[in-house]
Amino acid sequence: MARLLIDDRLASYVRDAARTDFAWGERDCALFVADWVHLVTGRDGAEKLRGRYSCELDAHVLCGAERLVGTVDRCARLAGLRPTRTPETGDIAVIEALGSAVCAIRGSERWFARLERGLLSTPRGRVVMAWRVEIEGNA
Questions:
Q1: CB-based contacts of 124: which residues, under 8 Å, 6+ apart?
Q2: Where are the chain's structural domains?
Q3: Which residues face 112 on adjacent strands?
Q4: In degrees to the nearest 10, what's the CA dihedral of 100, 130, 127, 54?
Q5: What is the pTM of this model?
Q6: For 90-118, how does the pLDDT look when each residue is reduced to its tens digit (9 = 90+)?
Q7: In which band, very low, low, confident or very high, does the pLDDT at 62 lie, cut at 50, 70 and 90?
Q8: Is the pLDDT of residue 1 over 50?
Q9: Sign of CA dihedral 29, 135, 67, 65
Q10: Which residues pair with 120 in a beta bridge?
């Protein structure tokens, strides 16, 4: 039942995100995904990253040797998520899209990501790594 309701909740989340500007350390691609996880699970695996960087270079330095995938994996696991090879609606991933790696949320037919130039909505994207988002019972 929860997966059936998630499409509407995700559509609302994406619409709301489209009304706000991109901001490193507050509303970027990684925190777009982390905010989604927090919204639907109540757990914030990225709490220690929030507000600690204000530009792309600072974000890269903060990720360090882990890089984006390693940092997202650590945050996802802190939020109680497990990797999956078959992402479903509401799950999160690092995907390759438009020539770079971005954090994204799986919709029923597309991936959604927040980029500096706006929200990305694409049916394509090579999944680098994905995590299952277990939706709370009344999502």
A1: 97, 111
A2: 2-132
A3: 105, 121
A4: -10
A5: 0.90
A6: 999 999 998 889 999 999 899 999 999 99
A7: confident
A8: no
A9: positive
A10: 113
